[in-house]
Amino acid sequence: MDEFTKIKYSETKQGKLYFMIGLPRAGKTTFMNNWKAEDPKRVVVCFDNIRLAMYDKDHIQNMEPFLWELAQIMIKTLLLSGHDVMADDTHSSQWKRDYYKKMNGEGIYINTPLDICLSRAPQEHREFLDAIKRMAKNLESFEPEQESVRVVDWNTLQNSKKD
C-alpha cells in the first residue's frame, strides 16, 4: 500500500462484517430483515439479488466466480463507508467462511433441518431441490462451535416470524 492509500484508508470508517450460513429456505432472509430493521446503517449484500440484477436468472454456474468478486467489492466498499454489512448466501463452502473470518467477519448460522428447507422449496423445481441437498452435504462436517459461529435456532426464528 502506498503512502497516499494508507492515509486514505486510515480516514475511512470501518463497519462490521457478518455473514449468514444456512441452507436455502432456512430463514436467513427473515433473520436479516429483522437485523437490518434495528439500525439504518446496516446493509445486506444478497448474492441472489446480484444474480437477478446481472442476468435475470437465479444461477449460472460459470458466472459464480465473477459474482463472488463483485459481491466482495460491494461488501468492502460498504464496510469502508462505515456500514455494518451482512453477506447473504448459504456459505456452505469452508473457504468462503474462512475468507470472511480473515476479514474479522462474524458468522451466523440458521440451523434449519434439511427436511424443513426442502418442504419450503417449490417442489416443481427439481434442480433447486437437488442444490439444497448438495449444500446440505457440504454442511455435514460444519461445526459452528469450532468455527466460533453464532447459532440461531430455526424454531426461535419461526416463532418470531408469527408475532
Provide a concise account of the structure shown.
This protein is an alpha/beta fold. The protein has helices at residues 3-10, 28-37, 47-55, 64-80, 94-102, 114-120, 126-139, 154-162; strands at 17-21, 42-46, 84-88, 106-110, 150-152.
Structure description:
There is one protein chain. The chain is α/β, with parallel strands linked by helices. The chain has a single domain, classed as P-loop containing nucleotide triphosphate hydrolases (Rossmann fold), CATH 3.40.50. Helices cover 51% and strands 14% of the residues. The chain is built from eight helices and five strands, in the order αβαβααβαβααβα. The protein has helices at 3-10, 28-37, 47-55, 64-80, 94-102, 114-120, 126-139, 154-162, and strands spanning 17-21, 42-46, 84-88, 106-110, 150-152. The protein has a five-stranded parallel beta sheet with strand order 2-3-1-4-5, with helices on both faces. The protein starts with a helix and ends with a helix.
